[in-house]
């Protein structure tokens, strides 16, 4: 049995306070190393986190100008300028507002002719540049991290994945009526994520309470991929009261 650790858990009053706490942790890593390589995430939970970071940059409290980053995942089939692509999300919410250099922000390509080869290229690029100093994570309602759906193992690496029906339904809110939600993505694996020096998972809202409980108190295993964070010696979880339920 691999050794298990207890992630540090912080419960903030509400989602805004959780976002401030998360942004402060990220800024701390960058203040320690202004050229840090960060692992970044997308999703609704990250929007206020990145807004807080951008506000800290605007106040001169931290600079992200020298930082580089690797994102967790991208939808297969979406070009970088598609409004729902994760590349577009990063440009919109972080690069522009927080003064990051988009050329130093790696996101898997959703339109590579060979998605499997793109996944392998991404894993190799991360291994060459990494380890990332801090990997930021959201949490899927089914316990996924990145797009590592239930069934993903702790040694999985960047690969093409098929999204769960629940994930497709959860993410449909971001797409227009009648617009098809992608069913496949390129995602860092659980093993890729666990290679980071530190991990910070942020979850807010009552809809995440079940997944939070499974992550922290359920068995460590592929039924809840986020539970594998308990195999990492430096994992931190920031919740709001609703998610801590
Ligand atoms: C997507 C992303 C995940 C994210 C999750 C939760 O599936 N691939 O990285 O954590 O959504 O998103 P939200 O924060 O919008 O609830």
Molecular structure report:
- This protein has 8 helices and 10 strands.
- The protein has 245 residues and is α/β, with parallel strands linked by helices.
- It has one domain: Rossmann fold, CATH 3.40.50.
- The strands form 2 sheets. A 7-stranded parallel β-sheet has the order 1-10-9-6-2-3-5, sandwiched between helices.
- Helix 7 links the parallel strand 9 (198-203) and strand 10 (235-240).
- The two termini are 30 Å apart.
- The model has no long low-confidence stretch (mean pLDDT 97).
- The protein binds 2-amino-2-deoxy-6-O-phosphono-alpha-D-glucopyranose.
- 2-amino-2-deoxy-6-O-phosphono-alpha-D-glucopyranose binds next to helix 5.
CATH topology label: Rossmann fold
Number of domains: 1
Q: How many DSSP H or I helices?
A: 8
Strand order of the largest sheet: 1-10-9-6-2-3-5
What's the short version?
This protein has 245 residues and is an alpha/beta fold. 34% of the residues lie in helices and 17% in strands. The protein has 8 helices and 10 strands.
